Amino acid sequence: MIQIAQGWQLAVERGPGWLFVRPYNLCQPDDGLSPVDDGLSGQTIGLGSPQSSPTGDLRVDAADEQSDTPQLDLAEQVCQLLEQNFTRRVVLELDQIGCLTSDLVGQLVLLQDRILAEGGIIRVCGLSSVNENVLSECGLLSRFVCYNTRPDAVMGYRPPRPR
């Protein structure tokens, strides 16, 4: 059974040549951000045992599994997903992340290092201004190119910012 860090769940969608990954923090207090169904077919992967949803998506929930099961961290899980889908390009959709923690920032750095080492592309979209400030405070904002939307991330379009 593949697990990621306690309390996390991943929504995964495939596109032409890209993998779209949206992490959800199940243990995060209600901050007004709830998972949204954007009408696209996808797969949800997280902790616990797999369950089929009414739409046929794979869904794995944290509450169903005991803590003695081996865990994989976020970076390792996304890398495995890239290998399983035969692609090296990923868009991380972080619009459902309320606050970037140091652990999550560390996972993002590790994931970027692994993907770039294999000649892949990682792009981040949907990052809130507060979370952009977190990356800036860590000195990592220049390392991660942040896009507003998924299509912008795929196309590599960044609107000019005022100086």
Explain this structure to me?
- By secondary structure, the chain is of the alpha/beta class.
- The protein has a single domain (8-155), classed as Transcription Regulator spoIIAA, CATH 3.30.750.
- The chain is 26% helix and 23% strand.
- It has helices at 74-84, 102-117, 129-137, 150-155, and strands at residues 8-15, 18-25, 43-46, 50-52, 58-60, 89-93, 121-125, 146-147.
- The strands form 2 sheets. It has a 6-stranded mixed sheet.
- α1 (74-84) packs parallel to α2.
- It is globular and about 40 Å long.
- The termini are far apart.
- Mean pLDDT is 75; it is low at 29-41 and 43-70.
Topology:
Layout: E1 8-15, E2 18-25, E3 43-46, E4 50-52, E5 58-60, H1 74-84, E6 89-93, H2 102-117, E7 121-125, H3 129-137, E8 146-147, H4 150-155
Parallel strand pairs: 2-6, 6-7, 7-8
Antiparallel strand pairs: 1-2, 1-3, 4-5
Helix pairs in contact: 1-2
Give a quick summary of the entry.
With 163 residues, the protein is an alpha/beta fold. It has helices at residues 74-84, 102-117, 129-137, 150-155; strands spanning 8-15, 18-25, 43-46, 50-52, 58-60, 89-93, 121-125, 146-147.
What best-fitting shape do the alpha-carbon axes yield? globular
Structural class based on helices, strands and sheet pairing = alpha/beta
Q: Let me know the largest β-sheet.
A: 6 strands, mixed
Number of distinct helices: 4
Terminal-residue CA separation: 49 Å
pLDDT < 50 runs, ≥5 residues:
29-41, 43-70
Task: List its traits.
163 residues; alpha/beta; Transcription Regulator spoIIAA; six-stranded mixed beta sheet; two-stranded antiparallel sheet; 8 strands
